[in-house]
Amino acid sequence: MAEILSQKEIDSLLAGVSQESGASESERSSPQKKDNRDISVFDFRLPHRLSKNQLRTLHTVHESFGETFGSYLVGRLQSTVSVQVTSVDQLFYSEYVLSIASPSSLYVFRIKESDALAILEISPELVLAMVARLLGGTAEPEKKSRTITKIEQSIVQGVIEKALVTLQKAWKTISPLTFEFTRYESEGEFAQIAPASEIVLVVSFEVLIGDNTYLMNLCFPTFALDDVLAKIHTQHFSGVESLSKSSNASKYILTNLEQTKIPVQGVLGLTSISLKDLIELSEGDVITTQVPVTGEVELVIGEKNKLLGKPGVSNNRYSIKITRMHLNNDNGAQK
Predict the structure, then answer these.
(1) Cα(130)–Cα(2) distance, rounded to whole angstroms?
(2) Neighbouring C-beta atoms of residue 57, cutoff 10 Å
């Protein structure tokens, strides 16, 4: 038989319940303690197949590619060119296809060692700028993006093949790979180098030609690089030089250049006389030139007129005090 509570016991129980409810309301009304731990979002749909060390190494490899390819473009386009890596990401191939503009310029190439395909994506504006420069025009961007014609594709194909050769040399610091151009596509849906759910490595570049900026991307399917990526260990990887080593090498080269000797001539003046006058010259004769006594003489460095100065004596030696730059840089002395 259940125990019957007295009225006093019932009142005490009700009082306890009211106190607990009041405490819970005060807890809800009081501000919660802040959690100082860093919280990062993790997408379980996107497994990270590449570690941070691998991504850093790949970033360095493609920085080397950008520097070499940029130097090549300087010579071909006769303009200031800079190719810099902006990001190295891993994402689904379907996401990469959605990011491709329409129309675009996709150069599909084969990785012979794995028989897989990869993409060199160049914005149409960059292709048209290169075509204009190669034909002797200016690299002014077109107002509207358009599909690249067959003739324009033929003009820049040599540049694309050179880019793949340069990329191949950059990857050689990790593993010898052979890249071979296969075909051109203008739409991302037709490239199809991997299944939609496959993880791909996307390296983004910023190409600066003159004052204009263009975009360029490289897309590698990760399954094609499994054997290569397994070799990458930053702690044991010495094939790729760090930026500090590169800067040390630049200082070493600059030091050697500073010690290089070049011929410098001070041209006091030029004139012409007849052969008869030359034969009859004797001690004490005066030969007049086009340079007045108080005028400036030319300094020829190498074979170019670079500087102007005034002759004099310093520490009991004939000297020339430089006054200004020479406006005429024609080869040889000005006659």
Answers:
(1) 95
(2) 23
Q: Cα-flanking dihedrals φ and ψ of residue 212, to 5°? A: -105, 140
Q: Are residues 214 and 131 in the same domain?
A: yes
Q: Strand (E) positions, 63-197?
A: 81-92, 105-111, 116-122, 179-185
Q: How is residue 187 written in tokens?
A: 């739409």
Q: Strand (E) positions, 142-243? A: 179-185, 199-209, 212-221
Model confidence over 58-93: pLDDT tens digits?
Answer: 999 999 999 999 999 988 888 889 999 999 999 899
Which residues 6+ apart lie within 8 Å of 58 measured at CB?
50, 88, 201, 203, 232
pTM strictly above 0.85: no
Quick check: is 330 in a domain?
Answer: no
- Is the separation of the CB atoms in 145 and 90 below 8 Å? no
Strands, E assignment, 156-275: 179-185, 199-209, 212-221, 264-267
Nearest in space to 202 (alpha carbons), one of 61, 96, 127: 96
Task: Give CA–CA dist 187/154, Å, rounded.
Answer: 18
Which of 236, 255, 274 terminates a domain? The answer is 255
For the chain, how big is the Rg over CA atoms in Å?
36
Residue written as token pair 């593993």: 175
**Regions in the chain scoring below 70 on pLDDT:** 1-3, 17-49, 139-143, 233-249, 251-252, 328-335
Q: Strands (DSSP E) along 80-192, which ranges?
A: 81-92, 105-111, 116-122, 179-185
pLDDT tens digits for range 199-235: 999 999 999 998 889 999 999 998 888 888 777 754 4
Contacts of 79 (CB under 8 A, 6+ apart): 133, 139, 209, 210
Instruction: Look at residues 225, 255, 285 and tell me which one is the last residue of a structural domain.
Output: 255
Note down the domain range covering 195. 52-255
Give the chain's length. Answer: 335
- For residue 217, the SS3 value is strand
86: closest CA among 70, 62, 109, 68? 62
